[in-house]
Specification:
Oligomer: single chain
Radius of gyration: 32 Å
Shape: flat
């Protein structure tokens, strides 16, 4: 094309190498063609901000900023494209493993955790580039030499010197060919450990992430306050790879993530103290990618604030409240009832009631061809065509209708803020509410502290997001149960509405529901009338420091019909919520409306 611009010609040359880049990893590798950005506006739309190339893990798309490809980089299309494919195939591969790698590296970077995305990106690059250089014969060293030629200040960057020295050792390059900065004994020793780490953990790279972070920590602390080095910038192609996505399975802490990350100098696999270990960096055996899907073990969970920090490091921009909604949704998932499944969930059986005209605007499948042909052997659409009409008759099974849930969760000053630390009140509420929604019930969620400190859903809803946003809010004020909400809910509830079960999660402050309301009416009388109108029963689950029998107000509540469960530890609310959900909303427990 004689009229093509230089960037368009560059695009065409690089696009011709895309199939070869895919084949570097496997003949079965499938990715959509890259997004080629010719202008700054193209890069902004594609989310390319930190480098001349990147991969988006949300849609597994490679993005190339052609205007940033310098003459020094132009001869390396296969190396650069193959590297980006490596992020898809080897490391970090997907959103979840990307987040789990960041979690490990963050633990290894106390006080400088904000560098975790950069460190994770460079660690992944080591794994990918070592495979491409050694196993595929590409000139990845030439790419780094080209980047260094285009950058200023690399000779003064101690971290970059250490990082480039790792490549020299891995690939047996002459000292100083890539690492042009000053190298002392520490840089040399750390680079040897880094090279050993890359080879030893190539097949289980998640386990090596924390060790690599510990190796980088002194360099990052030394440069803190001076900002990111210029020479880092062009190769940060995966630092925002998780932006816009949502990694799953992140609330639980992986078994090998617990404790203080092991520094490579103390690791027998890397310090040469174990005979036959993988410390020999000259090994040339093929390295195969590994998805590193370590199974998380139940029982240890991150705090919501830590969960939010990892999401932020992954590239997600969320408020604390939005983080909390995702956190408790994921934490509750394992305790939810199974999705309902019934052989015949309808209460009526279909009954044929004759035929009616079929028009061209009706679905073709609705035509009753037998009746149409019997009426006229010549079929004329919209004239002779008919369709079967159906009525219903009483079926063999009654319609099964779950009891609606009216949930009240205490958010007074004695309760934890669910957006910072784990709130078992919020978690228990989420388990019961999401189980009710899964069973087909409607849910009204009310978060309360004082009489005027109340947030609730717009009545009984089927909106999971709305329910969770209410439950993950926080007041932290005085304690006064919102009697008026309970009263008004059932004063205006339609008579033909499904029965509703009232569930209150609180502590001994719940007895404020028996105080007088703003109309000076006796609270116990108001509550009992509302419970009677609800028609589905009422339950309290309370964290009490003394026996239930020692509180006359609660003893009377039991007499009035409340089912009261006492927990001594807030964590016990999870077991209660799980058992309650199965009793109320499992398939064989749903009440049958006759």
């Amino acid at each position: 094309m004689t009229d093509a611009t230089p960037l368009e010609r560059l695009r065409d040359r690089w696009a011709a190498r895309w199939p070869d880049a895919l084949a570097l990893w496997s003949p079965f590798t499938r990715l959509r063609p890259p997004v080629w950005c010719l202008t700054a506006e193209d890069e902004e739309r594609a989310g390319l901000t930190a480098s001349f190339a990147m991969i988006r893990l949300t849609d597994q798309t490679v993005v190339i900023g052609l205007r940033q490809i310098t003459p020094a980089l132009a001869p390396f299309p296969l190396e650069i494209l193959g590297h980006e494919v490596g992020h898809h195939i080897l490391c970090p591969a997907d959103l979840s493993d990307n987040a789990r790698l960041l979690a490990r590296i963050r633990r290894a970077l106390p006080t400088v955790e904000h560098h975790a995305p950069r460190v994770a990106n460079l660690y992944a690059d080591l794994l990918i580039n070592d495979r491409l250089q050694r196993a595929r014969g590409l000139d990845m060293a030439g790419v780094y030499a080209a980047i260094a030629a285009d950058a200023d200040g690399s000779a003064d960057d101690r971290f970059w010197t250490f990082y480039q020295r790792i490549y020299e050792i891995l690939w047996a390059l002459p000292s100083g060919s890539l690492a042009t900065g000053t190298r002392d004994e520490k840089v040399e020793g750390d680079a040897v450990l880094g090279a050993r780490l890359v080879r030893s953990f190539a097949g289980r790279w998640l386990d090596g992430g924390g060790r690599f972070g510990a190796l980088c920590l002194p360099y990052l602390m030394a440069e803190e306050g001076s900002g990111a080095s210029v020479v880092w910038q062009p190769w940060l192609d995966a630092v925002h790879a998780g932006a816009g996505g949502f990694p799953d399975g992140l609330t639980e802490v992986d078994p090998d993530e617990r404790g203080v990350p092991l520094h490579p100098a103390l690791d027998p696999e890397l310090n040469g103290e174990v005979p036959g270990s993988a410390a020999d960096v000259a090994a040339d055996e093929p390295l195969e990618p590994d998805g590193q899907a370590n199974s998380p073990s139940a029982g240890q969970y991150r705090e919501p604030f830590e969960y939010g920090q990892i999401l932020a490091a992954s590239g997600l921009v969320l408020t604390d409240h939005e983080v909390a909604v995702r956190y408790y949704r994921e934490r509750a998932r394992r305790q939810l009832i199974p999705f309902p499944s019934r052989a015949n969930p309808v209460a009526t059986d279909p009954l044929p009631e004759g035929v009616e005209p079929w028009s061209v605007s009706d679905p073709l499948a609705d035509i009753d061809w037998v009746e149409t042909v019997l009426r006229s052997p010549v079929v004329i659409p919209d004239v002779t065509t008919v369709r079967r009409s159906w009525g219903t008759s009483t079926g063999a099974e009654p319609e099964r209708v779950p009891v609606d849930l009216d949930l009240y969760v205490d958010s007074s000053g004695s309760m934890p803020n669910p957006q910072i630390t784990v709130s078992y009140l919020t978690l228990a509420g989420a388990i019961v509410a999401l189980s009710a929604l899964r069973a087909g019930a409607n849910v009204q969620a009310t978060l309360w502290s004082g009489v005027s400190d109340v947030t609730r859903t717009a009545g009984f809803v089927r909106d999971e997001e709305q329910v969770l946003r209410v439950l993950t809010g926080f007041y932290g004020g005085g304690t006064a149960f919102p009697i008026h909400v309970l009263r008004d809910t059932y004063a205006s509830r339609p008579a033909d509405a499904a029965p509703a079960h009232v569930l209150v999660i609180s502590d001994d402050g719940v007895t404020t529901m028996f105080d007088r309301d703003e109309r000076a009416r006796d609270g116990r009388e108001v509550v009992n009338r509302a419970i009677e109108r609800a028609g589905g029963g009422a339950t309290m689950v309370l964290n009490l420091w003394r026996e239930l029998e020692q509180d006359p107000a609660l003893v009377q509540a039991v007499v009035d019909g409340w089912d009261i469960h006492v927990v001594r530890d807030w964590a016990d609310l999870v077991a209660f919520a799980t058992a309650f959900s199965r009793r109320a909303y499992a398939d064989d427990q749903v009440e049958a409306r006759r």
